[in-house]
Design brief:
The strands form two sheets. A five-stranded antiparallel beta sheet has the order 1-2-3-6-7. A two-stranded antiparallel sheet has the order 4-5. It contains three helices and seven strands. Helix content is 27%, strand content 25%.
Length: 171
């Protein structure tokens, strides 16, 4: 089932998500709904809170060299923790909850993360490139944070002004 995406400045996006305790069929159907929603909205990453579920769950599905998203590449990430952050890198980010806005954001270049898959199996991985960026972006959602919070004061003011104008115009 495709769910609605919560859009900025909805306060639900500020909630801190909680750990998943049961790796059951209910979790599996939530993961399936998240995947369907992310693909339908043309996203490469989605956190559960973006559909109003305050659980530590996120998906990442990057495109391959041909620009296609393959389900075999899907990462289902439950209760993630970052063990190590290294280096830094700037990338132009976007977010399904802030449609149409993109800006350069600085994050760690390489990370070591641990998380659980849908069966409760523990995974430990080193990530770099877009995968590392996406993981940090999505993990921020689990703490109630959005990428626009990392903008400079002036850029944030400009964003807020443009966003208000857009909301007023009913878009
Ligand atoms: C997070 O972002 C991310 O504005 C995932 O109109 C960001 O899937 C991962 C999207 C940067 C890696 C790098 C954004 C779709 C999708 C929009 C997304 C829009 C339609 C964003
Ligand atoms: Co996002």
């Amino acid at each position: 089932m495709i769910r609605d995406i919560i859009v900025y400045p909805d306060n639900r996006l500020r909630k801190v998500s909680k750990d998943v305790l049961k790796f059951d069929t209910e979790l599996h159907s939530l993961l399936d709904d998240m995947y369907e929603t992310m693909i339908a909205k043309e996203g490469i990453g989605l956190a559960a809170i973006q559909i109003g579920i305050d659980k530590n769950i996120l998906l990442i599905n990057l495109a391959d060299e041909e620009g296609r998203q393959n389900k075999e590449d899907l990462l289902e990430v439950i209760n993630p923790k970052i063990n190590r952050l290294e280096g830094s890198e700037i990338y132009q980010e976007g977010c399904l909850s802030i449609p149409g806005y993109y800006d350069d954001i600085k994050r760690a270049k390489q990370i070591n993360v641990e998380y659980f898959d849908r069966f409760g199996k523990k995974i430990v991985r080193d990530l770099d490139g877009l995968l590392a960026i996406a993981m940090q972006h999505e993990m921020d959602h689990l703490k109630g944070h959005l990428f626009i919070e990392k903008l400079s004061y002036l850029k944030r003011k400009k964003f807020e002004k443009e966003w208000k104008k857009r909301l007023k115009a009913g878009k």
